[in-house]
Amino acid sequence: MRPSRGAARRHLPTSPFSPPPPAPPAKEFAVDDQVTHDSYGLGRVVEIEGDTAVVVDFGARKVRIPAPFAKLYPL
């Protein structure tokens, strides 16, 4: 069995170590946004599946890219 994960540890003000960096903001896309992907190139968002994935039309094919939308950047 795997041990259960507890809550994230909080930073104590008396700690000699620096606090962990804040989480980067989540990327948000809208339908018809132009985007670029490191592997697929230029495309246009055609569908949004809540906060879980986006479907992008890259011309030759449509690709579903799940969150956290690695390698996908808005233009």
Report on the architecture of this protein:
Helices cover 0% and strands 35% of the residues. The protein is an all-beta fold. It has a 5-stranded antiparallel beta sheet with strand order 4-3-2-1-5, with no helix packed on it. A hairpin with a 3-residue loop joins strand 1 and strand 2 (41-49). The chain is elongated, with a radius of gyration of 18 Å. The model has no long low-confidence stretch (mean pLDDT 87).
The span between the termini is 45 Å
> How do the helices and strands follow one another from N- to C-terminus?
EEEEE
Q: How much is the radius of gyration in Å? A: 18 Å
Gross geometry:
elongated
The largest sheet has its strands arranged as 4-3-2-1-5
Number of helices: 0
**Unreliable stretches, pLDDT < 50, 5 or more residues?**
none
What is the chains' assembly state?
A: single chain
- Amount of beta strand: 25-35%
Main beta-sheet strand count, sense and barrel state:
5 strands, antiparallel
**SS class:** mainly beta
Count of individual beta strands:
5
What portion of residues is helical? under 10%
Q: If you average the pLDDT, what whole number results?
A: 87
Summarize the structure.
Helices cover 0% and strands 35% of the residues.
Give keywords.
5-stranded antiparallel beta sheet, 0% helix, mainly beta, 75 residues
